[in-house]
Specification:
Length: 222
């Protein structure tokens, strides 16, 4: 079969494709098995130590590689903020989250038990500005959170989660509504904080213990 002339531009290739080219006319060739003459990307990365792994004690490093127009490679290592280097920021974020959680639980309790529709602003002021709860939360977080990974501190958080959760379940089922309105926000905040600070397996065990204790006592959870 006579070989056809190869298309010279995109228009001719599209026209050839519409006509239907015989696969036998497509030239075949084996790929070259020779080693590359120049440096490969792996060689350039090894020269610039881009593939070097950090030791087990240091966190994993991320490198941004940029190929310049002249063919050179530029590596940029972004700065990673170590949480242990900014303890005040960590304490501030935890304290703010717990204060907002305490306010949210206070609002929900008033919405559940109050005779009238609660106003958001007075409840916010009474649970944050005119309440000792934010200062107590700040003190507890500043003392306990930096040592959260300590096994002894994990035991404290687990005990706090079990104690606060069980007390909250008992109070919401047995105590009068005024007592529930006073106890529930603080107990709920301590319960959530203890669960968050615990390891996932310890947190699951604490939830199972609290749930099992409530089921054994015949309490309802809703």
């Amino acid at each position: 079969m006579a070989s056809q002339e190869a298309p010279r531009n995109r228009k001719e290739r599209r026209a050839r494709a519409k006509q239907g080219q015989d696969p036998a006319d497509i030239p075949l060739a084996r790929p070259k098995q020779q080693a590359p003459k120049g440096k490969t990307l792996l060689d350039l990365a090894e020269e610039r130590q881009l593939l070097q792994r950090s030791n087990n004690d240091s966190p994993a490093s991320f490198t941004t590689t940029r190929i310049n127009p002249d063919g050179s490679v530029t590596a940029e290592v972004p700065q990673i903020i170590d949480p242990s280097a900014t303890p005040y920021l960590d304490v501030f974020l935890y304290t703010t989250s717990l204060i907002l959680l305490h306010f949210t639980l206070t609002l929900l309790v008033h919405h559940q038990y109050a005779a009238e529709r609660p106003a958001v602003l007075p409840i916010f002021l009474s649970s944050t500005v005119f309440s000792p709860a934010p200062w107590l939360i700040l003190l507890l977080v500043a003392l306990l959170h930096p040592q959260a990974s300590n096994p002894y501190m994990q035991t404290i958080f687990a005990g706090m989660a079990i104690f606060a959760g069980s007390w909250l379940v008992q109070a919401s089922n047995d105590d009068p509504y005024l007592a529930v309105m006073k106890k529930a926000p603080a107990l709920g905040t301590l319960w959530v904080w203890g669960i968050v600070e615990s390891r996932w397996d310890v947190a699951v065990a604490c939830l199972m213990i609290t749930g099992g204790w409530g089921w054994w006592k015949g309490y309802a959870f809703w």
